[in-house]
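Thread amino acids onto this structure.
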């Protein structure tokens, strides 16, 4: 078994565990402690909703079969709350001992993203969290407008490439206007989990990025297009949101040139 090493940024995340069985709830707490993750343990969906009203969680792990409010009702309530409040989509991982009664399609229909089988060992839990917890806060998203990064074009390099400051200004205005429209459409596509529209808008944005050079954003966008077409939006949502943040930072940089 591999050593359960975890990313350093996990110390900034918090996981909500929803499990009605006391011993299993305690075991999940021990495993998350072992992985260096802050967490809160509750016994049913109703308590989970109360906890989410008080603080933000980066991921929810929920048993499917519970009294008072089961995991399916909880997932639907979380998705409705996100829609009502305009919040970010939190990953929900189903925890089940029986994939006959708690089949994957039923989990997906309720708004869950993935599932784990009981009894749960530490390594499968770690692997699932690696896939679904938010990534390390991107350095790009913390840059102030106008701050450059390796591989990004400078105004001088663009003038040299296109021949005059006037052409550069005209080209940037056109590119940024189209990119704004595409990013707005991309946000709508992600909210509605529309894989076709997501891939279409990513393709347009990748074309704009390739025109200027983008410190890796072009290649990341191309990979995401393939992933979205293969697995859908929900499966790739965390990566898509990180890409959006990094793209916004890059477009802010171009506006300041």
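Threaded sequence (257 positions):
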């Amino acid at each position: 078994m591999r050593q359960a090493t975890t990313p350093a940024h996990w110390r900034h995340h918090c996981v909500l565990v929803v499990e009605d069985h006391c011993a299993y709830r305690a075991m999940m707490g021990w495993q998350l402690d072992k992985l260096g993750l802050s967490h809160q343990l509750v016994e049913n969906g109703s308590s989970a909703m109360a906890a989410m009203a008080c603080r933000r969680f980066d991921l929810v792990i929920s048993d499917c079969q519970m009294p008072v409010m089961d995991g399916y009702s909880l997932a639907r309530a979380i998705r409705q709350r996100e829609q009502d409040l305009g919040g970010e989509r939190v990953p929900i991982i189903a925890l089940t001992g029986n994939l006959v009664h708690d089949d994957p399609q039923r989990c997906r229909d309720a708004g869950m993203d993935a599932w784990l089988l009981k009894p749960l060992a530490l390594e499968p839990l770690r692997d699932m969290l690696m896939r679904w917890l938010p990534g390390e806060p991107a350095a790009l998203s913390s840059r102030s407008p106008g701050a450059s990064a390796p591989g990004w074009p400078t105004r001088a390099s663009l003038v040299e490439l296109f021949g005059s400051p006037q052409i550069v200004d005209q080209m940037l205005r056109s590119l940024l206007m189209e990119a704004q429209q595409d990013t707005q459409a991309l946000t709508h596509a992600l909210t509605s989990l529309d894989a076709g529209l997501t891939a279409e808008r990513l393709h347009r944005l990748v074309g704009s990025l390739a025109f200027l050079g983008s410190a890796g954003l072009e290649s990341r966008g191309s990979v995401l297009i393939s992933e979205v077409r293969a697995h859908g939006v929900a499966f790739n949502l965390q990566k898509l949101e990180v890409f959006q943040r990094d793209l916004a930072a890059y477009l802010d940089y171009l506006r300041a040139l």
